[in-house]
UniProtKB/TrEMBL annotation:
PROSITE patterns: RIESKE (PS51296). It comes from Spongiibacter nanhainus. Pfam families: Rieske, Ring_hydroxyl_A. InterPro entries: Rieske_2Fe-2S, Rieske_2Fe-2S_sf, Ring_hydroxy_dOase_asu_C_dom, Rng_hydr_dOase-A. It comes from the Bacteria. Its cofactor is Fe cation. CDD domains: RHO_alpha_C_MupW-like, Rieske_RO_Alpha_N. GO terms for molecular function: 2 iron, 2 sulfur cluster binding; dioxygenase activity; iron ion binding. This is Aromatic ring-hydroxylating dioxygenase subunit alpha. Residues 46-162 form the Rieske domain. Keywords: 2Fe-2S, Dioxygenase, Iron, Iron-sulfur, Metal-binding, Oxidoreductase.
Length: 463
C-alpha cells in the first residue's frame, strides 16, 4: 500500500489529468484524515444542505449535519433564508436535537427555545430571553455574545448551500462554470420524486466515487451493455467535473449522445425505447421519466425503418415535449449544443452528484457517519418536473441497500462499494490506476481534496 503522505500536493494542471496518474488511498482509510476533514474540508466548502422545497413556508427550518457540525437553516421571509450553527450559546446544548437515526429534522417555529434553560432566539438569531440575566452583571448585554452563530447560506438550482467559513468565496464563484452549463436545466423547477438514505459501510468518498464514471457499467451493470455503449469522457471544471457518453469511434458521435437520453445499439427506433425503459425501471424509476419512456415506445410505429439516429432522437424529444406540455409540464429550452456540453453527470465538489435530463435529475450525496472512515451516510433522490399542484409529498425514507428498495442498478453499485473499501486496505494493493480518459472526475476530485487537506498525493505513473 502506498503511504507517501509527506509528498507535497502536486500542482496539477487540467491537461495533466489526461495522463496516467495515481492517487493515495489514505483519504479513504485513515481515521486521522477523517478527523482533519472536520477542520480542513467541511467548514471550508459550500455544502449542499437541502432543497428550497424542504422549507416552503416562513418559519420552516431544516437541519443539516456534516461530521460534528450541525446547521439549522430557516426561511425567515418568503425569499430570505438564514442559517445558524445548531447550538445554544449558553452551555452548548443543540438547539434542535438531531438523532443519528434521522436524516434531517424539519419543523416550523416562530422562535427557538433551548430545551435546557429556556434561552430563546427569534428567526433572525437574536436572543430574546435569558432567565435571570442580571446574574451576569451586565456582561450578557453584548448581543453578539448571546445570539446564534450565523452561517453563510445561498441557493442555486433549488438547492440550499451553506458555508461555515465567514470569509468564503460567493457560491457562484465556487460553482464556476457549473452555473453557466447547468442553469438551463432549471433544477429549481423540479421537485423530489423520491428520496432514500442508508448508513453504508464505506468511506463517503468511496461511495460518491461509485457514481462518478460510467467506466464501471460493463463490469458492474453488464445487463445494460446489451442496449448501448458506455464509453465515456470525463473532464474537470475547476473543483467540479463532468462525464458524458463518448464513442470509441469518433465517426459515431451525434450531437446529443453525451447525455442519458440517447439512442441505443441497432435500430434506434427500438433501442432508444429499450434503453430508456431499462434505465427507468432498473434505476428505481429515475434517470428518465414516464413521458420519455412512453414517447420512446411509439417510435417504431411513428417512424419508418432506416430513420437515421439523429432524426429518431429529434422525433422522440419533440413528441415527449408535446406529451408533457399537454399535461402542464413545460420543458426549458436547451439547445443540442448546451445538452452536449452538459454531458451525462456532474460531480460538484466535494460530495454532490447530479445526473441530469431536461425533465429529471438523479442525484446523490454522501457524508461521513460518526468518526469511522469506514462508514458513511448515503443518500439518493430523484427530481422531476411535475404539473403544478401534482408534486408528490416525499420524505427521506431509510432504505437498506437492497435491489427491492433501490432497484437493480443501484443494488449492483452497493455490491461494489463495501468491497472497494475493504480491498483498498490490502497490503498487496500497489496503488490506484484511474482511467485517464474516463475517470478524470475522480482524479480531479483528489487533486482538489489534497489542496484543501494539505496532504495526500497524486503522482504520474512512470511509463
Ligand atoms: S444550554 Fe441553552 S439555555 Fe442553557
Ligand atoms: Fe453504477
Amino acid at each position: 500500500m502506498s503511504n507517501q503522505n509527506d509528498i507535497p500536493v502536486k500542482e496539477l494542471r487540467d491537461e495533466d489529468l489526461a495522463e496516467p496518474l495515481t492517487y493515495s488511498v489514505e483519504p479513504f482509510l485513515s481515521r486521522d484524515y477523517a478527523e482533519k476533514e472536520k477542520d480542513l474540508l467541511w467548514p471550508k466548502v459550500w455544502n449542499m444542505a437541502a432543497r428550497l422545497e424542504d422549507i416552503p413556508e416562513v418559519g420552516d427550518f431544516i437541519t443539516y449535519n456534516i461530521a460534528d457540525d450541525s446547521i439549522v437553516i430557516i426561511r425567515i421571509a418568503e425569499d430570505e433564508l438564514r442559517a445558524y450553527h445548531n447550538v445554544c450559546p449558553h452551555r452548548g446544548r443543540q438547539l434542535v436535537n438531531t438523532p443519528d437515526d434521522v436524516n434531517c429534522v424539519k419543523g416550523r417555529k416562530k422562535n427557538f427555545v433551548c430545551g435546557f434553560h429556556g434561552w430563546t432566539y427569534n428567526l433572525e438569531g437574536e436572543n430574546t430571553y435569558i432567565l435571570d440575566k442580571d446574574d451576569w452583571k451586565g456582561s450578557l448585554e453584548q448581543k453578539e455574545r448571546v445570539c446564534l452563530s450565523p452561517v453563510k447560506v445561498d441557493t442555486w438550482g433549488g438547492w440550499i448551500y451553506i458555508n461555515m467559513d465567514p470569509d468564503c468565496e460567493p457560491l457562484l464563484e465556487f460553482l464556476g462554470e457549473v452555473d453557466r452549463i447547468l442553469s438551463p436545466y432549471q433544477f429549481e423547477k423540479m421537485r423530489y420524486k423520491w428520496r432514500q438514505w442508508a448508513i453504508y459501510p464505506c468511506n463517503w468518498k468511496t461511495a460518491i466515487e461509485a457514481f462518478m464514471e460510467p467506466y464501471h457499467v460493463a463490469g458492474t451493470h453488464s445487463q445494460l451493455t446489451k442496449y448501448g455503449q458506455f464509453y465515456a469522457y470525463s473532464k474537470p471544471y475547476g473543483l467540479h467535473g463532468v462525464s458524458g457518453f463518448d464513442e470509441r469511434d469518433a465517426s459515431q458521435k451525434t450531437s446529443q449522445s453525451s447525455g442519458v437520453a440517447r439512442a441505443g445499439l441497432g435500430d434506434p427506433r427500438i433501442s432508444t425505447y429499450e434503453l430508456a425503459k431499462e434505465n427507468y425501471e432498473t434505476v428505481n424509476y429515475a434517470a428518465s421519466t414516464e413521458t420519455l419512456v412512453n414517447a420512446a415506445s411509439r417510435l417504431k410505429d411513428e417512424l419508418p425503418e432506416g430513420t437515421p439516429v439523429q432524426e429518431v432522437m429529434n422525433h422522440w424529444m419533440k413528441s415527449a415535449k408535446a406529451d408533457d406540455a399537454a399535461r402542464g409540464v413545460v420543458w426549458p429550452e436547451i439547445t443540442p449544443e448546451q445538452q452536449s456540453e452538459a454531458g451525462l453527470a456532474w460531480s460538484l465538489f466535494p460530495n454532490q452528484t447530479i445526473l441530469q435530463g431536461v425533465t429529471f435529475a438523479l442525484c446523490y450525496r454522501t457524508r461521513p457517519y460518526g468518526d469511522d472512515p469506514n462508514m458513511c451516510i448515503f443518500e439518493s433522490y430523484a427530481l422531476e418536473r411535475f404539473p403544478e399542484g401534482e408534486e408528490p409529498d416525499t420524505e427521506w425514507v431509510y432504505a437498506e441497500p437492497t435491489a427491492e428498495n433501490w432497484g437493480k442498478v443501484l443494488a449492483q453499485d452497493f455490491a461494489n462499494m463495501e468491497w472497494v473499501q475493504k480491498g483498498m486496505k490490502s497490503r498487496g494493493f500497489r496503488g490506484t490506476l484511474p482511467n485517464p480518459h474516463q475517470e478524470q472526475k475522480i482524479t480531479n476530485f483528489h487533486r482538489h481534496l489534497a489542496t484543501y487537506m494539505g496532504k495526500g498525493h497524486i503522482d504520474f505513473l512512470e511509463k
